[in-house]
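ESCALATION

Customer reports they have been waiting on this structure for their group meeting. Please prioritize. Original submission:
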Amino acid sequence: MRRVASNRPRTPGTTLPLTGLALLALIVALLGQSGARADEPMGAEGCATCHDTAFSTWKKGPHARAADRLTLAQKADPRCQTCHTPHDVEGLTGVQCESCHGEGTYYARSYVMRDPELARLTGLRQPKAEDCQRCHVDGPSLRAFDFEEARQRIRHWPEEQ
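Update from on-call: job pushed to the front of the queue and completed.
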């Protein structure tokens, strides 16, 4: 079998001639065999199976309790739910891990998480200021949002500085 040369630039360190889309399709096919559902988030409890330290810190933090800060009227208001309980799945209240890091259905497999590039290609995100500012906007808060200050308050990985 003869290999056809490609004129596309290769990403340094790439060893497989698969595009991100082809790789994602392969992973989707493999995960489909396991019964994983792409339309439902795993929730923080699912992340806790491998990331127990991060989960414990999250559980004590403001994101886990975001829905508890709402009045009954606010809990019925979809505008409030968008940020305080962004996943419309029974039992998932508060700001779950996937609200910031992306839906984990595809990247949560251990063989994917061991490969940072593969995890990123399948949806894992490192939150940036603009991600947080989707909810942390001028409004109900009394102070302006400072990404670096907020990041330190919710720090949930021991190696984070």
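Sent to customer with the following note: The chain is about 40% helix and 0% strand.
Escalation resolved.
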